[in-house]
Amino acid sequence: EAGVAQSPRYKIIEKRQSVAFWCNPISGHATLYWYQQILGQGPKLLIQFQNNGVVDDSQLPKDRFSAERLKGVDSTLKIQPAKLEDSAVYLCASSSDPFKAFFGQGTRLTVV
Amino acid sequence: AQSVTQLDSHVSVSEGTPVLLRCNYSSSYSPSLFWYVQHPNKGLQLLLKYTSAATLVKGINGFEAEFKKSETSFHLTKPSAHMSDAAEYFCVVSDRASKIIFGSGTRLSIRP
Q1: Which domains are seen in chain B, by residue range?
Q2: A26 - beta bridge partners?
Q3: What pairing do the DSSP bridges indicate for beta strands B10-14 and B106-111?
Q4: Cα B49 from Cα B39, distance rounded (Å)
Q5: Around B53, how many Cα atoms within 13 Å sit in the side-chain half-sphere?
Q6: How far is A104 from chain B (nearest CA, A)?
Q7: In chain B, helix, strand, coil percent, each to 5?
Q8: Ordered structural domains, chain A, with CATH
Q9: Helices (H) and strands (E) in chain B, counts
Q10: What strands, in cross-sheet order, belong to the sheet with A19-24?
Q11: What is the pLDDT of residues A16-40, one digit of tens each?
Q12: What confidence tens digit (pLDDT) does each residue in B22-69 have?
């Protein structure tokens, strides 16, 4: 089966610029996750969707980060404006049950 | 609330010797527990999972883990390390709300 697709793979932006990441989950997976993985740390959950509704966004910095999942399929994560500390890999995952989540390759963001 | 603690940030073993990566968890409910591996510049790969069946779980590449409720532990082991095992390993806990929480990771190095 096709995996979780993310784009772009790499992005370099200057601080205070905006950036958007895209995720296309595995077909039929109702749950979609966005994680932020800073170098040397474990992935941190930013937001969890169930279909097109938000289940958990308690760790999403809402003053600069936003995410949407229109029509309950693909999703975008946006950062506006970016800060240096946002440099990280942004991972998208999807699942049809919590015991079997599939992860994308991630988008590596560098803010300079 | 649930959490997971990986007790070692870095473990180094010689090729052919046993591997032990330690993980303790905290969960209000009977948790599901996972180990993921992340090779450099690669996506996350599921090694094994515990979902309230057998307490000794066998995974891919010769890894296994034992769920010990009395010790709230889920340590990952392998009898004989191989050079290809060098990677970052994450212990992960999931609850009934499909929330997936990662530990901070353990970097495994293999000495020739």
Answers
A1: 3-8+17-100 (2.60.40.10)
A2: none
A3: parallel
A4: 19
A5: 7
A6: 6
A7: 10, 55, 40
A8: 5-97 (2.60.40.10)
A9: 0, 12
A10: A5-7, A19-24, A75-79, A65-68
A11: 999 999 999 999 999 999 999 998 8
A12: 999 988 777 889 999 998 877 888 899 998 778 899 999 999 999 999
Cα-based angle A96, B101, B79 (whole degrees, multiple of 5)? 95
Say how far residue A82 (Cα) sits from the centre of its chain. 15
- What secondary structure does DSSP assign to A38-60, as a single string? -TTS--EEEEEEETTEEEE-TTS
Q: Which helix (H) or strand (E) holds A5?
A: strand A5-7
Nearest neighbour of A45 by CB, restricted to B44, B96, B101: B101
- Widest distance between CA atoms in chain B: 43
Q: Do A103 and B90 touch (CB under 8 A)?
A: no
- Gap between the terminal Cα atoms of chain B: 41
The first and second tokens of residue B77, run together, are 């082991």
Q: Count CB atoms within 10 A of the CB of residue B24.
A: 17
How many Å apart are CA A14 and CA B44, to the nearest integer? 28
Of A42, A48, A55, the CB nearest to B102: A42
Q: Indicate the length of chain B as a whole number.
A: 112
Q: Which amino acid appears at position A81 of this protein?
A: P
Q: Number of Cβ pairs closer than 8 Å across A and B?
A: 54
